[in-house]
Amino acid sequence: MWRRVLGDNYREEWNNSMEYNLLQKLKYASPLTAQEKHIVDFILNDPEVVFHSTAHELAQQTYTSASTIVRLCKKLGTKGYPDFQLKLALEYQQQPSPSLRTPDHAFTEQGNVLAAIDSVPYLYHQALDETRRMLNAPVLMRVANWVRQSARIDIYGSDLNYYLAQQACAKWNELGIAAVAHNGPNMHYLNTMNSSQFILSFVISHTGENSSMIEVAKVLNHKQRNVIAVTGNNHAGLSRHCDETLLTYSYNEQLRLSKMSSMISVLYLFDMLYMASISDNY
């Protein structure tokens, strides 16, 4: 198909206009974001994937977005993804070096595990970068000040979020800061909280629509407690009942990857607050 599309006129235009070929640009392009670098590495590992994939399909394979793919193509000097496909196809079929051509592989369990060696650090890096990008520094500083002033920290979360709450609390407890994780609304505790103590509460829900977490936030808000939503959706019900919101990130197109990204994002937020506590206590 690609050989039919690439005529002599286009071939001549390409040879005359490009100072560096596209494969060279892919290898040495800079500066690139972490997402763009991952896409470049993915393409260099198997250039033919570009010929058989739309921008959306390539985005799914690289855990990025179609807009990121198009942005990278323009950064490399092409007009967009279709232009990038054509130019790469022309150059690739002229390549004399067999080392640039990747043979077909049968995907095995071992192959998937080896792919994860690169994919997992990339997903971690992406989650950290995106969480940092969404950070509101004044809000984070305000929450850090509340942590310093608090007599006790409560963190509410269900399922995986309860495990994350336990991790955050364990770190604060090591510093001598009272912190307790809760896996749901304990109405007796919520209704008998010591009103003279400054108790800071975090409520974790990635969707922001967990009904039990919203109930916790409602009760605490009614009691005029300081409540922080830790969520990926600041327009959801949870944030409406909290004083501040710390935004988390997750990769939305794959449920299992979304959980991984969300977990890293939540840990990053709590670790920043924990490190602020360390500087205060030591």
UniProtKB/TrEMBL annotation:
Classification via Pfam families: HTH_6 (PF01418), SIS (PF01380)
Domain of life where this protein originates: Bacteria
Keyword Lipid biosynthesis: no
Phylogenetic classification of the source organism: Bacteria, Bacillati, Bacillota, Bacilli, Bacillales
Source organism (scientific name): Paenibacillus amylolyticus
Limits of the HTH rpiR-type domain: 19-95
SIS domain segment(s): 143-282
InterPro entries in the cross-refs: Homeodomain-like_sf (IPR009057), HTH_RpiR (IPR000281), RpiR-like (IPR047640), RpiR-like_SIS (IPR035472), SIS_dom (IPR001347), SIS_dom_sf (IPR046348), WH-like_DNA-bd_sf (IPR036388)
Any one GO molecular-function label of the UniProt entry: carbohydrate derivative binding
Biological process, per Gene Ontology: carbohydrate derivative metabolic process
Entry keyword set: DNA-binding, Transcription, Transcription regulation
Annotated protein name in UniProt: MurR/RpiR family transcriptional regulator
